[in-house]
Design a protein that fits this description.
By secondary structure, the protein is mainly alpha-helical. 63% of the residues lie in helices and 0% in strands. It has one domain.
Length: 113
């Protein structure tokens, strides 16, 4: 992918053709939500792993089942988010972006910076 010579002060209308601004905003909103969800899941996993669970479980495995399942599911969700973001998609998937397809699409619709 070519490096775009864009200044830090640039806004989307400086780079994206006017008729593609809505598509750009939708893609950015999707990527933001996915990365935010990934960050929150990782944060919660770290906090639970750092917490002294022995205070509640007394080393009895049955008492730790909720947090154990939560950790398993949160880790699974993180893997799914990452896989979704790096998946290679066809050109026709406008509603779901991977990082590469979004980058390629932005390169196509730029205004000629």
């Amino acid at each position: 992918m070519p490096d775009l010579p864009i200044s830090p002060e640039a806004i989307e209308t400086d780079v994206i053709a006017p008729d593609h601004i809505e598509e750009y905003k939708n893609g950015m909103a999707f990527l933001y939500r996915e990365l935010k969800n990934l960050h929150v899941n990782i944060y919660l996993i770290e906090k639970i792993l750092q917490f002294p669970l022995k205070l509640f479980t007394d080393d009895i495995p049955e008492r730790a089942i909720f947090l154990s399942y939560f950790l398993d599911n949160a880790i699974d969700k993180c893997i799914l988010i990452i896989a979704n973001l790096i998946a290679i998609r066809g050109r026709n998937s406008k509603d779901v972006y991977s990082l590469r397809t979004f980058q390629a699409r932005i390169a196509e619709i730029q205004t000629g910076v």
